[in-house]
Sequence to fold (457 residues):
Amino acid sequence: MDGRYNDISATVEADRAHVWHHLFQHAVLDKRDPRILVEGKGMTVWDQTGRDYLDAVSGGVWTVNVGYGRESIANAVRDQLVKINYFAGSAGTIPAAQFAQRLTEKTPGLSRVFYANSGSEANEKAFKMVRQIAHKHHGGRKWKILYRERDYHGTSMGALAACGQEQRQEQYGPFPAGFIAVPHCLEYRKQWDVENYGERAADAIEDVILREGPDTVGALCLEPVTAGGGVITPPAGYWERVQEICRKYDILLHIDEVVCGMGRTGAWFGYQNYGIKPDFVTCAKGVASGYAAISCLITTEGVFDRFRTDPDDPMSYFRDISTFGGCTAGPAAALENMRIIEDEGLLENTRKMGVVLMEGLHDLMEKHAIVGDVRGKGLFCGLELVADRATKEPLAEALVERIVGLCDAEGVLIGKTSRSFYGFNNTLCLSPALIVGPSEMTRILDTLDAALTKATH
Fold:
């Protein structure tokens, strides 16, 4: 980091006085300065004091997939903004058309892209489409949307209504009607003592459908790998049965790829690891690696055609707009982001380094009794921490936070489940950028090893 940030005390005070930070209790700033990140390169970021950190969570929320300081993305955005920066999504632009084509090439079976600017908003668009389809084609009856315990789909009111994390919902109700929970599929904390747990967890979804009435259920919204709910990978047999159930009852399958999309699991999209054929796919975070705001709802031609009906009927089309879905910076950045992933072989690197990460985490599990379970896919992994392996009693959230703090003190940023479930905020989260190499991986694992040792002695 160069010297131009040596004295930014005025900026620190401006931040303290005027910025309302996300997911943050500001009372702590009565005793310390806020952290202001001023520069990033590769996987390293620097704060206002000049201290560097190795970022093992890709921007704190699984976003900066290709790393910091990518001049080619910045240049692509700059060049596009000079040509035309914005027009409402009722018209087209060159980067929007080009990226939609490239995106659907990566998602066979899906053919249409609706642009927005956040994952929450993309999920809301899908929910609205389901409701409108219910009115247009099912007499208003197939309007309910199923979601899974422990899954998360965003911060807006509709998305929170479909949130499987009770602490995130607390103090924000009442929520819109028609959002129905189905059981989670975390085998480590399985609800049924059976051999074919994956199929049983999927059958539990069918139980809910039959209870609610199949003719009232329009869609099922699931993450391919549950993210903030504890990095939960699906058990064997789960996804095959889920898809079978959806087809049996004519239920649209909505896969929320906001976290997993754009390479995080070693495939372009997480669902592609499991042979799923979804009706909706929503994506956001890694689409442009945080270089511009963009989210996408990708859907099939079959879904699209349900709105392509009578042109003289003013209520027949999808009557929705995302103002900043018309910004050209997002698709321009996304095109270059995709090129980087392809040209630098980052999907292959994700698979290769993901193996290294999982092997290292299993080594830590053998060494530290505090690690109850290790799970993940690609460069998206979690460690569930326990006070007792035999009983699986979750480690207290304060101790989990201490481990995160110990890593921070050594200059490595990791994540954790935070204020999501009562008693179960006990999973550490690792999601380094897709560019991670052996040296960075060694540092991440060694720092975590030291933190687990220090926290238990």
Remarks:
- The chain is about 35% helix and 15% strand.
- The chain has two domains: 3-64+345-456, 72-343.
- Residues 22 and 308 are 40 Å apart (CA to CA).
